[in-house]
Specification:
Number of helices: 11
Strand content: 25-35%
Radius of gyration: 20 Å
Number of strands: 19
Helix content: 25-40%
Number of domains: 2
Structural class: alpha+beta
Length: 371
């Protein structure tokens, strides 16, 4: 018997996140995800008259393909993937992972080659389809969240199927403020960073692009970031875990990047992927009331209540500042008191202090009101 939560999630993805209609095509791209969820997505798509196409992947197989990739292989993959995505009106990706470090031993030059070659496919999917990306709950994810498998599954389905329509209404005033603001100032332990978002615009995220969701993002103008920022959550990128990342910026460029442990060389190798990787593609405020602590999975961590993220590389979606890069690395700073506190200012107004929004029109975004 299929878990009824699968059906609820599939219905949300098809009818709300992608808003599929009769005759539209959707690519359902699944990695290490149960067949039963694929079946529910197919049924949900057909129920609205849409045409589903399914791709199933395995993370160990994907690792093996990338570890030996070369220009000819990556170019062929790009050609095939591009031809397919151009046939789609929508895209749903669900990523399971039995081992969060599965890609940790892929050589950096191979990762860079593959990412740069396939970047046009990602750009087309982001800019030309209605898309939604999410994880699948696995024991590996439960371990990262320091939870039992059963407790994590319950948490996962609660947060993934929350009332996103209510979130969308609450997020409206924040989007308007981001569109009007010029200077942003972020303060906190080890952090004193300023930049401009003037004329960039803003994008609310309330269940259409990621599940779980709960952020509103913009990005700094290309040469405006000045100062330093210290991130207090671990982050996983290209299969490697990084902790204690600190960035120093001048005229919008990362001029110094350090971290704890022995990963500093790889950190800088990633930031040297291309000319745009040391510029900033995104700034976002997170406010999902059900996500409180990091679990080293960015689709959850970037939505943590009372957090912000700041992103070396290219923005995934409009708004953008014109920066181009194969890198998109959301680095998360939590500003609630138990994580060290902090402030976010728009121009001369204190917007958020210690993780809570202060202006009256933004109070609906605070956890006690959004749950």
């Amino acid at each position: 018997m299929t878990d009824p939560r699968y059906s609820r999630l599939a219905k949300l993805l098809i009818e709300y996140s992608c808003a599929l209609k009769k005759g539209e095509t959707v690519l359902i791209d699944l990695s290490d995800t149960p067949d039963a969820m694929a079946v529910e997505l197919i049924r949900a798509a057909r129920a609205v008259g849409a045409i589903p196409i399914v791709e199933t992947r395995n993370s160990r197989v994907t690792r093996e393909l990338q570890i030996g990739t070369d220009t000819a292989h990556a170019s062929l993959v790009k050609t095939i993937e591009m031809a397919r995505i151009k046939k789609m009106q929508a895209f749903i990706a669900i990523r399971g992972s039995h081992n969060a470090g599965e890609n940790s031993d892929i050589p950096s030059d191979k990762s860079r080659l593959y990412a740069k070659t396939l970047r046009p496919v990602l750009d087309h999917r982001i800019n030309k389809t209605r898309w939604c990306v999410l994880r699948w709950p696995t024991p590996s994810m439960a371990q990262g969240a320091n939870m039992s498998t059963e407790a994590f599954e319950n948490f996962y389905f609660d947060v993934c199927t929350m009332d996103y329509a209510k979130m969308a209404t609450a997020c409206g005033p924040l989007e308007k403020r981001m569109r009007k603001a010029d200077r942003v100032h972020i303060k906190g332990p080890g952090t004193d960073l300023t930049f401009s978002i003037r004329g960039i615009g803003a994008k609310p995220c309330e269940g259409q692009r990621n599940i779980p969701d709960g952020e509103c993002f913009t990005c700094p103008t290309l040469k405006s970031s000045e100062g330093f920022i210290a991130f207090n959550t671990p982050t996983l990128y290209a299969g490697t875990k990084f902790e204690g990342i600190r960035l120093e910026l001048k005229q919008g460029r990362i001029v110094r990047a350090t971290c704890q442990g022995g990963s500093e060389k790889k950190l800088n190798e990633i930031l040297d992927t291309d000319s745009g990787a040391r510029s900033i593609g995104e700034f976002s405020l997170g406010f999902n009331p059900y996500i409180q602590n990091p679990m080293c999975d960015i689709l959850f961590d970037e939505k943590i209540a009372g957090s912000l993220h700041y992103t070396p590389g290219q923005a995934y979606d409009d708004p953008g500042n014109g920066n181009k890069s194969a890198v998109h690395w959301d680095m998360v700073l939590i500003q609630r008191p138990e994580w060290g506190s902090g402030e976010v200012w728009f121009d001369s107004e204190l917007i958020r202090k210690d993780g809570l929004f202060l202006p009256k029109d933004l109070l609906p975004l605070n956890p006690k009101n959004l749950r």
